[in-house]
Amino acid sequence: MRAALSSTLKKVSAAAAASRPRVAFVSPASHHHRRHHQSNKPTKKRKDDYILGPDLPDIWATPGSSSPPPPAESETGELVPAIIDGKSIAEEIKLGIAKEVHWMKDTIKKVPGLAVVLVGQRRDSQTYVRNKIKACEEVGIRSLMAELSEECAEDEVLNAVSKFNQDPSVHGVLVQLPLPQHMDEDTILGAVSLQKDVDGFHPLNMGNLALRGREPLFIPCAAKACIELLLRSGIKLKGKNVAVIGRSNVVGLPTTLLLQRHHATVSVVHAFTNNPADVTREADIVISAAGVPNLVRGSWLKRGAIVIDVGTNPIEDPSFEHGYYLRGDVCYEEALQVASAITPVPGGVGPVTVAMLLSNTLDSAKRFFGIIHISVPDFICSYRKSQNIPTETEDDPKILVCLPEHIHCNDMNFNKLASDKSIGQTF
């Protein structure tokens, strides 16, 4: 009987194999889209492509010349859109960071350190790095830079990253993108220590951002900047329809994940989306991070939409100081006729992105030194005032900074914690 059963199973197996369709997987070009950079390197074959889907590059149809198209016809009546001033918002954020860095320097004689690895001579990358170093100086963060030639070997970049990983005075390591074509961005970015990944690109950071109930060590800076701009402008996200244009690991994906955490309804538009304008016209908020100048026209927006333009596309022009100027993804002239609020380029998302980098670096340093922030309950503030205990800011103290030796406390010794001026200051 067993022999008969075995013979039957073999026949069924052979018949199934003969009738099974043969599937050939074609490996498409890889999509290394980081900071609006696309690579033509071949992708690695994955055994789960059938379920995960092929990794196709987003190649957008370029609208045309870099000069803005003529303004679109608008409806009767003119909107006066609010210009969301990223520069002033960034200054507010940097002021708070500078206060904390000053406290660290005075109290523990340490300051945060940020290291940047720059490969090649791209003018836009050099400008971005200069802006980051300048911002570090403004708030008191120590900055270091490893500058390598475009022809250098990948191992040289990895060695620079490793050196900064091991340096205890460095609390954030950033590799400026894009990298030269002969280098593997995933390998180099993956070499950055998780504890120093202030760009937030480490797979564990991204994974924790995606999972409900989990918190990443760092949130990617540009995505964090988009949310910061909206919230500080008094724009509520809960229940809003938001269209995110672009799905890169740097901006599009983390922005989508953050918006979902704020209970927005998110639609993602990419190069394979049919009739993208139909999607964006339904959105209360449009966030564009495609890296294509003038991609988003006024006709893509519904009247009263809020527009966050993450695009910083360098357009060569020798008449400008650095030989180029920046143009956003959104046709600004057209959007002004339709939107209720919009970020300019430059001066919108860019400055806040740099401020978020400084914020992540500060958080990393505080974690390294064991400094924590505890929200001060009202009764502690009242207790201090009742006992005539001075604070750094008497108006409305918000935060108590504690050093490691003071963090083990319970309700019974909260009074001692509140009255002990040596443990820190309020800001």
TrEMBL record:
Keyword terms of this UniProt record: Hydrolase, Multifunctional enzyme, NADP, One-carbon metabolism, Oxidoreductase, Photorespiration
Coiled-coil ranges (or none): none
Keyword set includes DNA-binding: no
Family: Belongs to the tetrahydrofolate dehydrogenase/cyclohydrolase family.
Gene3D superfamilies: Leucine Dehydrogenase, chain A, domain 1, NAD(P)-binding Rossmann-like Domain
Catalysed transformations (reactions): (6R)-5,10-methylene-5,6,7,8-tetrahydrofolate + NADP(+) = (6R)-5,10-methenyltetrahydrofolate + NADPH; (6R)-5,10-methenyltetrahydrofolate + H2O = (6R)-10-formyltetrahydrofolate + H(+)
Compositionally skewed regions (Low complexity) per UniProt: 1-24
Transmembrane regions: none
Span of domain Tetrahydrofolate dehydrogenase/cyclohydrolase catalytic: 84-199
Descriptive protein name: Methenyltetrahydrofolate cyclohydrolase
Pfam families to which the protein is assigned, alphabetical: THF_DHG_CYH, THF_DHG_CYH_C
Organism: Ensete ventricosum (Abyssinian banana)
GO biological process assignments: photorespiration; tetrahydrofolate interconversion
Region (Disordered): 1-48
